[in-house]
Amino acid sequence: MRKENFKHFYDIETRWYDEDMLGHINHGTAVTYFEDARVRHAAEIGLKPHDTSQFPFIVASMSFEFLKQIKHPKKMTIGLSISRVGGKSFDYEYGLYVEDDNECSLSCKMTMVCFDFVNQKSVEVFKEIKKDFQEKINDN
Predict the structure, then answer these.
(1) CA 127, CA 95: separation in Å to the nearest integer?
(2) pLDDT single digits (tens) 6-17
(3) What's the total number of domains in the chain?
(4) Which of 19, 47, 62, 104 is a Cys-bridge partner for 42, taking CB atoms 3.0 to 4.6 Å apart?
């Protein structure tokens, strides 16, 4: 997974408590890194991820590929792009890169469902998501 494949980038640093007893970043912690990037991206494109009455989507599925071990302390960058848009769902693809290393250490794909929490039902993919996806296609 190449950095050039991503449209958005978010910096993050490991935390001391992110490591497990084997001395590398725990797999459960990796989820939180991508969650942070997802929330930052949603806010960046005009959605309201911090407003619980308007939180825009839920995770339907996620898969990870652990390519390299990551040890604390590290500065990292998460690349994020929307790779597919359907009627009520879309896919995020992520790549996590350790500073000064252009090879991906961890990749992730998440399928998100746009959701109306007030009415408890899935809804059409938001225009902000469609716009971001279309811009990525136009840039390629």
Answers:
(1) 24
(2) 999 999 999 998
(3) 1
(4) 47
Q: What is the CATH number of the domain that holds 73?
A: 3.10.129.10
The secondary structure element, H or E, covering residue 136 is: helix 127-139
User: From CA 30, how far away is CA 48, in angstroms rounded?
Assistant: 23
Q: Is 122 helix (H, G, I), strand (E, B) or coil?
A: strand
Q: Give residue-wise pLDDT tens across range 18-62.
A: 988 888 898 889 999 999 999 999 999 999 888 877 778 999 999
Non-local CB neighbours of 16 within 8 Å, separated by 6+ positions: 72, 73
Residue 26 to residue 30: CA distance in whole angstroms: 7
* Domain boundaries, position 54: 3-128
